[in-house]
Amino acid sequence: MTWKKDDRLLAKYEYGSPDVFPFTGNNDAPDHSQLNIEYFKRLDRVIEYLDHRGIAAHLMIYVWNKRVNWPEANSEADTRYFDYVVKRYQAFPNMV
User: Is residue 2 assigned to a domain?
Assistant: First the structure.
């Protein structure tokens, strides 16, 4: 994100501007054959933080206007990603 952050923001709650990607590699050269587990651990922290504060999280599995280099629709990599996200986050009590 490019806007100014609050100077009082503690580093452990700084979730903006992540240099992480849901697949290994990066957005310019993704390896869609492998999911980046560190990315999902980071997302877990965000969802847990919201839950502890009584806030529901609406998880968008795909966001097409964020310049993410997604795998080809209906490919094996696409199915792997979709299934993993649904299975990983369906148990969070604050997930929509």
Answer: no
